[in-house]
């Protein structure tokens, strides 16, 4: 017991106990259960954290495995042109290998009017101006529809009823109540229903001269230029569509809210039309003493053509609207733009110049293994990362001086062994995955330490021997028949563990519950220890007070005796 003595002036020493020191010593023994629970909580926190790490590694591996097994990862091709200054090409997924000879007889260009040498931005315009804008018209001829057959024109879909639909019923669905987005039409035994609004088109049962069309004909007139691709039949019904550009619409000063009486007003008026046409004034000198007026279509091609009457432009600077004219392997084609992506699937073609005479440009599309080799490398890297993490977390004292979190409970991560076993089965492909391809054949080699190594030389050889054609049809790793006739792949296995409600969620829930239980125990122990500490403090403080009283009494008696002795001696 720690006892101190204190003395004051004219008094003897008084005995006291160091209560704090005594209580601290006693609590070291009492705190042992708390120390043990704190260690368990610390370990449990590490377990939960490491489970999150292993789940993250497993998820990354699952993503790289999905990319490896996806057919789209291998539809990579490389396109080249032997004259890129004339025709440039790039390929995307879906492009097929092949050789193509192209020639260009005309480039697409936009319509352009230019007037230079204008003295002022407010130069007057004497006569009315008219802009005649090309409009696409389509004469559509269709036949009777059988029950359930459909026709889609201009965005509206018509479906024949149970008795079928005559051409007259079909036409009625497109010209009656044109603003309606749904309805039905009946005529005797024939019937049908329609959905969707007619968009960007005007529909008529008369020709441009006002004459009635036949019962199986309609005329569509585009409300805007470059619109023909939006008019199409997309169903089982028969429809023949022929398109021309004879329809025009005129704008003039009389029909505009902006008076066209000078050049600046003309520019504002053109830009206010809401058409695919723009106008601008360009200063020819710094002093702005001379101006150039330019009016042009915003896009190239005949479908964006227009004409201006009532104003004189410089013929030498005028440019007519033209479609691109070119051929692929002798097949003549036209497009409204010089950037073409719908002629050969997966191939983007950019026309820059015309070819001379009968000369052609050779375009080659080849399989490109450079990109998809990264898919294989990512698979190897994510697998190695997962296996190395698992190895570190399950290492025991026999193999390392710093055992892993799960050294004493490796069964928690035993599913990684299943991952390794399934991965080693290799690649399965073809109908019902009847064919097998070993991983080593494409350059993935298993090392003695369980990691993988990517051999690029072997991979290149496999590519030359047709590996890409196998992979681009879709493959699976770790395919196997399960009990009951069901089958699964390594990807299925991973997803079952990673999905909501899967193994990891249950495992993390269980471990979190254990952590909460330990925290509850910690709180209870701490509460009990607080009571014990307070009891010790109370007890030893009382003892200290008693000692103080006894010591004070002893000192008083001693002083009295000393005084008595001194009196007797005197």
Q: What does this molecule look like?
A:
This protein is 34% helix and 27% strand. With 570 residues, the chain is an alpha+beta fold. The protein has a 5-stranded antiparallel beta sheet with strand order 3-22-5-18-19, with no helix packed on it. Strands 7, 12, 13, 14 and 17 form a 5-stranded antiparallel beta sheet that branches. Strand 8 (150-153) and strand 9 (156-160) form a beta hairpin.
Write the layout of secondary structure elements.
Elements: E1 3-6, E2 14-17, H1 19-30, H2 32-69, E3 77-81, E4 87-91, E5 98-106, E6 112-118, E7 130-142, E8 150-153, E9 156-160, H3 167-175, E10 182-187, E11 190-195, E12 201-204, E13 217-222, E14 239-251, H4 263-271, E15 277-283, E16 291-297, E17 306-309, E18 324-328, E19 331-335, E20 339-340, E21 347-351, E22 361-367, H5 369-394, H6 415-423, E23 427-429, E24 435-437, E25 444-446, E26 452-454, H7 456-464, H8 467-471, E27 475-477, E28 480-481, E29 487-488, H9 490-498, H10 503-569
Structure keywords:
570 residues; alpha+beta; 5-stranded antiparallel sheet; 27% strand
Biggest sheet record: 5 strands, antiparallel
The number of helices is: 10
The counted number of beta strands is 29
Q: What structural class do the secondary elements suggest?
A: alpha+beta
The separation of the N and C termini measures: 43 Å
Global shape: elongated
The quaternary organization reads as single chain
Helix content: 25-40%
Low-confidence stretches: none
User: Approximately what portion of the residues adopt beta-strand conformation?
Assistant: 25-35%
Can you list the strand order of the major beta sheet?
3-22-5-18-19
* Rg for CA atoms: 45 Å
Arithmetic mean pLDDT: 86
